[in-house]
Design brief:
Elements (H helix, E strand, L loop, with lengths): L13 H17 L5 E2 L2 E2 L1 E2 L1 E4 L2 E4 L3 H7 L4 E2 L5 E2 L3 H9 L3 E2 L5 E10 L10 E9 L3 H7 L4 E10 L4 H13 L4 E8 L5 E9 L4 H11 L6 E7 L3 E9 L2 E9 L5 E6 L1 H11 L3 H23 L1
Length: 297
């Protein structure tokens, strides 16, 4: 397309210019050397613009956000605009959980759109990193968003709840667990907690409502941090055992454990205690590590 035919609708509007100029001036005045943000709630629904009705987030917003972690929560609304995404890219923001710091000042910006049930606010914290906080941020894995879905049920059988837990895991839940709780009127109930990615949450919420007797649930967004994992197989006198190894970002081993299902199968086949299989698997791993260290010398 010839450059004469390219049009930038709405980018030249006064409010956009004011937003960018004032944000740049504010960043310069604050004089901070690092910008961090929680994952971005981009919203949902549609938005009307010069090109017509577009899905949220708009194409320009998606392109500007890049690989930043995003999710969608709350009523349909555009929560990250192209201007906001541009400012985030300009500041080279990194994303994760709130770092350890001493807060020196704070500020809030209120939006012009009312959001029922929650304040339409943007919060900014300015502070000094605690001693060693920078090293800690580098030493541990980056946080990622995780959805926690919960419901409490007092009129379902254990068989039904066990069945639903299997369905949730098959549908992509990261984990499912059940806890006994005391409910109103002295009734004993079961709290079902589901952990999942942001993208799988809608399907898992629907599954809970469809397959259980609950008529309501609640959910929230939290941060998740996990070490990288790898698997190796080792020979023991009882057979091959799969070992799960967790590592710190720098590569050091943080934890090693034999896979339970493999050890259980070997224990049944050999007619020996499960604890012996697991103990021998750990010993085989320690011997293999020692051999590698000696070879490296």
């Amino acid at each position: 397309m010839p450059i004469e035919q390219v049009h930038f609708h709405e980018v030249g509007a006064v409010d956009t210019i004011v937003d960018i100029v004032c944000a740049a001036a504010g960043c310069e005045a604050l004089g901070v050397d690092r910008w961090m943000s929680s994952p971005l709630n981009v919203g949902s629904g549609t938005v009307k613009c010069a090109h017509g009705t577009l899905p949220v987030p708009a194409p320009a917003t998606l392109a500007l956000i890049g690989d930043a972690p995003v999710y969608s929560a709350g009523p349909p609304l555009e929560r990250v605009t192209p201007t906001g995404a541009t400012l985030l890219r300009m500041m080279e923001v990194t994303y994760g959980s709130l770092p350890a710091m001493r807060v020196q000042s704070r500020g809030y910006g209120a939006g012009g759109c009312d959001t029922p049930g929650e304040p339409n606010l943007l919060r900014l914290l300015v502070g000094e990193a605690e001693d060693g906080a920078e090293a800690e941020q580098i030493a541990v894995p980056e946080a990622e968003p995780i959805v926690v879905i919960e419901t409490v049920i007092d009129d379902a059988t254990p068989q039904l709840l066990a069945y639903v837990s299997e369905l949730l895991l098959e549908a992509g839940a990261w984990d499912v667990y059940r806890s006994a709780v005391q409910m109103k009127k002295g009734r004993t109930g079961v709290q079902v907690t589901v952990l999942s990615s942001v993208g799988r949450a809608p399907a898992l919420r629907e599954l809970l409502l469809r397959e259980t007797t609950t008529i309501g649930l609640h959910w929230r967004l939290e941060n998740k941090m996990s070490l990288t994992r790898e698997f190796v197989e080792l020979d023991t006198e009882w057979g091959r055992v799969r070992m799960k190894i967790a590592r710190w970002p720098a590569g050091e081993v943080a934890n090693v454990s034999p896979e339970y299902e493999v050890c259980r199968s070997l224990a049944r086949q050999q007619g020996i205690p499960l604890k012996r299989v697991m103990h021998d698997a750990m010993r085989a791993y320690a011997e293999a590590e020692l051999a590698l260290k000696k070879k490296g010398r």
